[in-house]
Amino acid sequence: MGDSAMVIVAIFLAAILMFVFPLMTMANKKDDVSVLEAQKATTEFVDKIKTTGIITQSDYDNFTTALAATGNTFDINIEVQKLDENPAKKETSIYTTIGDNVYYTIYTTQILDTIKDSNLALNEGDIVSVSVENTNVTIGQELRNFLYRVTGNKSGTVTASDSGIVTTNGSAN
Question: Is 125 exposed, middle or buried (0-12, 13-18, 19+ CB in 10 A)?
């Protein structure tokens, strides 16, 4: 009786080793590829904004298409901090600033509303930040959640982010 119980346990462990772990490995690799693709698309989108100084609807559409090619759905957050320079006042022949430069922030919904009608022009010194996080649950996340339920760990998500300072003035044409 004891030998048959050991055989059943051995068969169960062999099944886990033969099927579950390779499945988890492949699912994790797919998540890794999705992270790399999302990071690449995000970096290319931000780099184009930084170098042109413009956010266009077609660039945003290309960005969302590249993200959708990963097979995941994403929550996209775009934040632009526009530099609001204080004017300088002239004293004799010396310029002195009245105060510090201040940034005001434009968020995703405001940006998307603006680029529907026309391009959003940015100025040199503005800061753009884009972050994405998947909203669906991947197979890798499902498997990790199942196994981590015992340990209480939280599974990772497919995320990417990039930011930078705009290097040229754009025009809204």
Answer: middle
C-alpha span between 94 and 97 (Å, rounded): 10
Question: For every one of its 173 residues, what pLDDT tens digit does the chain have, with 9 covering 90 and above?
Answer: 567 888 888 888 887 777 777 777 777 788 888 889 999 999 999 999 999 999 999 999 999 999 999 888 899 999 999 987 665 554 555 665 566 667 889 999 999 999 998 999 998 889 999 999 988 877 777 777 766 665 555 556 788 899 999 988 877 66
The residue segments making up the domain with residue 41 are 2-165
- Distance, in Å, from the CA atom of 84 to the CA atom of 168, rounded to the nearest integer, reads 16
> Which tokens in the block code for residue 172?
């809204």
What order of strands is seen across the sheet that includes strand 102-106?
102-106, 74-84, 127-134, 159-165
Q: How many domains does the chain have?
A: 1
- Which token pair is 61? 């559409």
Q: And the tokens for 74?
A: 């994403």
